TrEMBL record:
Protein name, entry field: Uncharacterized protein
Organism name: Megalurothrips usitatus
Gene3D superfamilies in alphabetical order: Alkaline Phosphatase, subunit A
Gene Ontology annotations for the cellular component aspect, listed alphabetically: extracellular space
Length: 661
């Protein structure tokens, strides 16, 4: 749709509404027909439900909403330190691994016997045995090489190391680095990327089960550094689209849902294929001059191997799974340590080694860390210092000058006790997701940057990340607002204010946007709220009562209630092994709702719009001055305090008439 056309429709909400409704009906019919024709009746029910949610939403709300609100999806304001959540939050002491430092360290592609180990133990001889990938579940030993100095990784990224010293001590472990491969080096390069590429490597550092709020609570130093020093853009309206890790990573990496892609579930036996068939984004990067890497730390619950059949061939140039398979029996301290290295440092070092070996070459790396955050909301706090130090390190070494760094999580905590609280449920749906661009990006692409910044406050989803990554490979030259009919919206283009969960194809029980419930202006909740607001305004102008008239309520023009949707409140857990079907047997009720009221005061005919929270248990209203907008001109009605108390000008109607000019 052209810009002019779009403009006309936005200005005419009723017409836009009917156009959208028609499009949706068509879409719904196609979706249902397609699913039925595929003979996939298990999924037919879901398609129907999604379509139903979508239409219901539009029928009852869109027309009203377009007229009255800026942004259709309002995410709840969730206090980071809400008492409801702080019940689950406690400080956990840091842990340390073996005090005997590893005898061998990996630097890029080279494993080196350390001087410190030699100083402590005398002459050391180490044997290095390459770890080769057989398949997703087994590895085999490659050649063994013995040396007194160093070993260059070539056959594999991963080696088993056994060392003994002259004084009879010995040490062994498994190590990870980035093998040197002529085949890769010949294939990649900035001269191979498309002419319209953004010219950035992409490094994605993901951690399982961390909501945006929990990132701020448990990783405060890292958060501060990312946002204040690196200027990270944090997506505040990033909403999950399904249950668990695969339903986050599959849309990010392929732009589709698992159900839309070919069958890969293990339990479907011979009907299922390997996930190699998925159109992974790393294939696009690889085909466009990039080296690719992907590592996850928990092979027993791997994103693509737990329920799904996994990869037949290694999906990327540097695939970390074999390392973790081979290391399974060597972990100690509750699987947190391998030799003297803490589990998070192993993955951080592997990631950094890739960034360092391919420093001047385009690289795409996805590292996904779960060991310390998957099962516990607090333990991840123990790595804040190390994580912070790592980001400082890659920043100071200049690695981020030509890299798009994405620090993210797949979903918030899903532990049973937290899921029983409303805020816990909302946080589960709002994971941490952030982007760090090099400083030059903002200067070189001001419009794209500005759009991105705007989008941090809009409803965004994993599908959008996919569209954004595509744009890294082919960067647009013109920026236009995303079309509401697109499920995947690049974050370099503006996301429409009108986007709802239905547009974004987020099922209601996953949708954290608050439900708008249009209220009758005469409703006692609205009238009481409006009177509270006028009282609040009068208190605000009280110090200037000699000059500012006391206001009274003239009329309520419009009002709506915002609260978590019923399906979110009723969501208990997923009731099928794939996490597709919700059990909606819960009976939670919202205790706090947001009210939005548009009203007129007199004297002076001031038009105000205010958002306030209404506590349903105590019947009290909470109003903050920053949530009050004056929406008509106050002109010179506030002339009497213009010089003495400018802050009051939107709220003061002077008793005295303005001087005639
Ligand atoms: Zn997860």
């Amino acid at each position: 749709m052209g810009r002019m056309m779009m403009f006309r429709f936005v200005n005419n909400p009723r017409r836009l509404f009917y156009i959208i409704l028609l499009t949706c009906c068509l879409y719904g019919v196609i979706l249902v027909l397609r699913t039925a024709l595929d003979g996939n009746f298990e999924d037919l029910e879901r398609s129907l439900q999604l379509f139903f949610d979508f239409s219901t939403f539009l029928l009852y709300h869109c027309d009203q909403l377009f007229r009255h609100v800026g942004q259709v999806c309002r995410h709840p304001v969730l206090p980071v330190y809400a008492p409801e959540m702080m019940k689950f939050i406690k400080k956990v002491d840091k842990f340390h691994c073996s005090s005997e430092k590893n005898w061998v360290e990996v630097n890029g592609s080279t494993a080196v016997i350390t001087d410190q180990a030699k100083a402590l133990n005398g002459e050391i001889e180490c044997s290095f045995t390459d770890i080769n990938r057989n398949n997703e579940y087994t590895t085999s030993d490659g050649l063994t090489t013995s040396t007194h100095t160093q070993y260059n990784l070539e056959a594999s990224d991963f080696v088993k190391v056994y060392c003994k010293s002259d004084n009879g001590n010995y040490w062994n472990s498994n190590l990870a680095g980035i093998r040197h491969s002529e085949e890769i080096v010949d294939r990649i390069g900035w001269d191979q990327v498309p002419a319209d590429a953004l010219g950035l490597s992409v490094v994605m550092w993901g951690m399982d089960s961390i909501s945006r709020n929990n990132f701020i609570r448990k990783l405060p130093r890292t958060y501060k550094f990312l946002t204040e020093v690196l200027g990270a853009l944090v997506l505040e309206g990033y909403n999950i689209v399904g249950d668990g890790t695969p339903q986050a990573l599959i849309p990010i990496l392929t732009g589709s849902t698992e159900l839309e892609l070919p069958e890969t579930r293990k339990r479907k036996g011979s009907k299922a294929t390997y996930v190699d068939i998925y159109p992974f984004i790393w294939n696009d990067f690889r085909a466009n001059g990039y080296v690719t890497g992907y590592v996850e730390d928990q092979p027993s619950i791997g994103t693509f191997t737990y329920r799904l059949k996994g990869f037949n061939k290694a999906p990327v140039d540097h695939y970390g799974r074999s390392f973790y398979l081979a290391a399974e029996s060597q972990w100690h301290n509750d699987k947190r340590c391998l030799g003297s290295l803490e589990c998070h440092k192993i993955m951080l070092q592997y990631t950094e080694n890739l960034m360092s070996v391919y420093r001047d070459k385009p690289h795409f790396m996805l590292s996904f860390f779960a060991q310390l955050s998957h099962d516990d909301v607090n333990i991840v706090g123990t790595i804040d210092d190390d994580l912070h130090e790592w980001f400082v390190g890659v920043h100071e070494r200049g690695f981020l000058n030509d890299t798009l760094l994405i620090v993210f999580s797949d979903h918030g905590p899903r532990f049973a006790d937290i899921r029983q609280t409303i805020q816990g449920k909302q946080e589960e749906r709002l994971p941490f997701f952030s982007f760090v661009f090099p400083p030059w990006f903002k200067q070189k692409h001001p419009e794209a940057y500005q759009n991105f910044l705007t989008n941090t406050k809009r409803l965004t989803t994993p599908f959008d990340i996919h569209a954004t990554l595509k744009h890294v490979i082919n960067f647009p030259t013109k920026f236009r607002e995303n079309s509401l009919s697109n499920r995947s919206m690049s974050l370099f283009n503006k996301i429409p204010l009108a986007r709802s969960c239905a547009h974004a194809q987020i099922e209601a029980h996953w949708c954290a946007c608050l439900d708008w419930d249009i209220l009758n202006p005469g409703d006692s909740i609205v009238q009481d709220g409006a009177k509270e607001f006028v009282k609040f305004l009068n208190n605000y102008t009280q110090p200037e009562r000699k000059m500012c008239a006391e206001l009274s309520l003239n009329e309520v023009i419009w009002s709506a209630r915002l609260r978590p949707n019923q399906k979110l409140l009723a969501f208990h857990h997923s009731s099928d092994p794939d996490g597709f079907k919700p059990d909606l047997s819960g009976s939670q009720r919202a205790t706090i709702e947001m009210l939005q009221i548009k009203l007129r005061t007199s004297p002076g005919n001031g038009l105000y719009e205010v958002s306030m929270s209404h506590n349903l248990l105590t019947g009290t209203y909470n109003i903050r001055i920053q949530d009050v907008s004056r929406i008509n001109k106050y002109g010179n009605a506030a002339h009497c305090i213009m010089d003495s108390n400018q802050d009051l000008r939107k709220y003061c109607f002077c008793k005295e008439l303005p001087p005639v000019s």
